[in-house]
Amino acid sequence: MEQRAFTRTDLSASVIGLGTWQLGADWGDVDEKEALAVLDAAVESGVTFLDTADVYGDGLSEQTIATFLRARPELDVFVATKMGRRVEQLPENYVLDNFRAWNDRSRRNLGVDRLDLVQLHCPPTPVYSSDEVFDALDTLVAEERIAHYGVSVETCAEALTAIARPGVASVQIILNPFRLKPLAEVLPAAEKAGVAIIARVPLASGLLSGKYTKDTVFPANDHRTYNRHGEAFDQGETFSGVDYATGVEAAVEFAGLAPEGVTPAQLALRWILQQPGVTTVIPGARTPGQARANASAADLPELDAATLASIRDLYDRRIKDQVENRW
Questions:
Q1: Phi, psi (5° rounding) for residue 172?
Q2: 258-264 contacts: CB < 8 A, separation 24 or more?
Q3: Is the pLDDT of residue 28 over 90?
Q4: Is the whole-model pTM more than 0.90?
Q5: What is the pLDDT of residue 31?
Q6: Phi first, then psi: what are they for 180, rounded to 5°?
Q7: Which H or E run includes 13?
Q8: More exposed terminus of the chain, fewer Cβ within 10 Å: N or C?
């Protein structure tokens, strides 16, 4: 699979990675054997970038990755984790002592002395403007606890603030055919600055797979049930912030744009990969088959101008008014 450089680092990542939120929690029950099989299918399909967080299953996702990599020491895999969501979301909690404690926990969970990349996990907006926060992250690098740091953001404004920071290696942001706002300013700014872009929620929590109807029922412990209106965390993380009924209808139209032999999910991933400035995209997978199908999108030919225009038109007509003024 094609590898793209994290240009402020000595690292590179497969253009399609694996998001491992599903291997921790918040998407229903997790079976360890199946989780390990998903990881195996991903890396065997060329994936070299795994994205996790200390809060996914309260460390379960990190621990599962560690179990997998211990059994496969020959693999050269880039693991990115996140920190900051296990405490009350107050700017004053983002201090060096807490960073060290969170870092120690993630290093134990992942079984490593130094983490490849640590991302602030969608912190309160004032954090991005705090020199003290980024000085603390620089300290973690100097102490060789982490090799590099980045941020995961909710809004385009937060992304632009982070990109201006010289030590930020990456920005993780929601980008998919139902969330186009980052194309206007964020991706060009990141490309100019040499900051990697990690595109998350690429399938709009599964909407863009085309598998759901208005009658689909998700488990009670799935965020697509309990966070549909932002009850637990930012609403934009669930269905990209799109009203579910609207999203289902728009997803039917989106599926109709897929070329012959291409699934709607693969269409969404291929679209993201074509956006200038994207480094890697991190779809999740609940089964080995999903992991393999997602990875295969990297081998698809580029979408033609007519398909790209149709995706933009769909967004403008059905989605833009719901999401663009919020994120």
A1: -100, 130
A2: 259/303, 259/307, 262/300, 263/209, 263/210, 263/293, 264/208, 264/209, 264/210
A3: no
A4: yes
A5: 87
A6: -100, -10
A7: strand 12-14
A8: N
DSSP letter (8 states) at residue 316: I
CB 50 within 8 A of CB 77: yes
The candidate with the shortest Cα–Cα distance to 120, out of 167, 171, 164, is 171
Altogether, the residues listed in the chain come to a count of 327
Let me know: does 247 contact 239? Beta carbons within 8 Å: yes
Q: Count the neighbouring beta carbons within 10 Å of the beta carbon of residue 227.
A: 18
Residue type (1 letter), 203 = L
208-237 tens-digit pLDDT: 999 999 999 999 999 999 999 999 999 999
Q: Residue 72 and residue 86: Cα distance in Å, rounded?
A: 30
The tokens describing 7, both together, are 């240009």
Closest CA to 42 of 68, 24, 62: 68
Residue 259 has a pLDDT of: 94
**Residue 240 CB: number of other CB atoms within 10 A?**
25
Query: H or E segment at 267?
Result: helix 264-273
Say if residue 14's pLDDT is above 90. yes
What is the distance between the alpha carbons of residues 224 and 235, in angstroms, rounded to a whole number? Answer: 10
DSSP 99-117: HHHHHHHHHHHHT-SSEEE
Supply φ then ψ for residue 115, to 5 degrees.
-85, 140
Q: Where are the beta strands (DSSP E) in 212-260?
A: none
The tokens for 3 are: 């590898």
CA dist 183 → 69, 168, 272, 276 (Å): 35, 19, 10, 8
CA distance 92 to 90: 5
Pairwise CA distance, residues 152 & 78, whole Å? 17
- Structure confidence by residue, pLDDT tens digits, 174-199: 999 999 999 999 999 999 999 999 99
CA 241 – CA 259 distance, rounded (Å): 27
